[in-house]
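**User:** I keep going back and forth on a fold encoding question. It is easy to fool oneself when nobody else works the same problem. Could you pick a protein and write out its sequence and tokenised fold? Could you put it straight underneath, so I can go through it closely?

**Assistant:**
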Amino acid sequence: MRISKYTIYAIVAFAANIFFNANGEVALKRNIPTPLPEHPGNVFLEGEVIRIKLPDGVWRLLNYENKVLGQAKPENGIAELGKLPVGFYRVSCLGDSNWVSLAVLKQLKKPTPITSPICLDVAMAWFYPEEQMPIAANLCALAGVNWSRDRLNWAEVEQQKGKFAEKTRYDSSARHQTAAGLQVLQVNHISPKWATENTHRFPPDLRDAYQFYLEMAKRWRGYVRAFEPWNEADIPNFGGHTGAEMASFQKATYLALKKGNPKIIACLNVFAVHNKAQLADLADNQTAPYFDTYNFHHYEPFDNYPILYGDHRAVSAGKPLWVTEAALPVKWSGDDKLKELSDENLKLQSERVVKTFACSLNEGSAATFYFLLPHYVEGEVQFGLLRKDLTPRPGYVALAACGRLLADAKPLGRWQYENPELRAFLFDSKPDGTRRNVLVIWSAKNNIDVTLPSKPVEIYDHLGRNVSSDNLKKPGDKDARYYSINISTAPLFLIFDRDDKDKFAVQKPQPAPVEKTEKPSTIVLQASEKPEKIDLKNSAYKVSRDKQFALPLNIYNFGDSHIKGALTIETPKDWAAVFTEKIELNPMEKKEVLIKVLPKFSPNEKVGKIKIIGDFGRGGKPVLSVRFIPE
């Protein structure tokens, strides 16, 4: 049997980065990454002689600014370009709209910190065949990525109820990413057909989800370190669930994940938008004990971040914020087959990579996952940092600059400068492995001269290229304490000594709420209403204004013992509810009850809420809050 060279690379990487602890569990070992042999993807480290595959012809070598640096004439299909400094480069032939790209990165001086916030959505299992997985994983590691986000299809892994496939592409991708020293976050967004007719929604029986995530937590122990049990359940593309539905699903899957692997990070099933009604609905359901990180996505302009993050932070229960998709994407143009970005948008994408991380981290994100590594198009939008052939766009080089210069970054605040066009965020970081203060700085519109309170130790542009200190000028008064620098819309990284942080007047980041530490209940309550009754904007079910209706309620026991308990219900003023009070449940049993509700909406009452509270002794006190809106 012939073994591919990429399989050999993967075996070598696996041996280098994975070992087993005394308990026989997979443990992550993170080394300083180096490129794979033959440099697939055309990514090199500074100081390496660059050799790339090219068809015969006369090729021009261009840098990021499209300045011609020389010619390349392949011999036997290989062009040697010598040594190049850090940056993004292309080779092209005259008259040909396509081009071949390459990147030169500065090698990391120390392994990426295990707490670094620079993370990446890779979707490896969906985008890359197994022979390309070690390449994509290596490119992530070279860029200083800490966490990588993958994609999962439940139906492929559990093809029949209780029958799990022995080996899948998801197993392979988890192992290849772990072998490269990456921490893996996995997410699913689809139910199998055996569990529900509407596969875009949660399974109606939460025990199906519980059993699946219990098995996955056991199966990938050490390989998958965090789970988002569903992707963007709050929007119609992925089910259009209410906050209450998301809460019940979260509770069941959290209990399963923690039972399967107590060390796993059980993330919140992630929000796509910040619909305040859905956020409030989730919070009313007292979901905080059932997630380790509060997860959400955004694709909004940078100046919107304070409000956006504030809305999410308010319901985060003080848990770490994880932004697991983030970008301000750009559109492709030209050849429909290539779906490539224009030169202008290639540069714009790369600048926005740095701005996305800087603005997100300043708002308190503990892990921001840029969207997306692979070549991926939605309509006119091109998201990918890599091209189809795994070669880089400038945005990938910008990602590597963030991975290196914002390694382990913690926000110190936004610099309060007199010019309102300036965007400048100060971080306590580890650029090149040394603890420093890093100022990420750019102008919102025009070039402006900025007076710095201290002289930077080093300056890098948004691609991680060293910027000459000649760009620093003494202001008119010749005061040796101050230096002036011209700032454009392209971000710069200014590196300062740690003692310099007090010289910057900063608006400190918003503090997280006090973390809630309640103990989760093993009893889960679930409203089982029909999806067509949902008013998603209000995260509520549509009901008659003054006629009795029946709310189906499922009660689950995910504990290990028989349990007895009782329910009580809180209703709005003048509402009435009739229900079964006493409940008994065996382990993994579900009971269905009907709650008969007589609403009485006041003329000004837009939404009515009922809260169902259980008391099951050692099983805990589960809560379900459900919202209703008059038809």
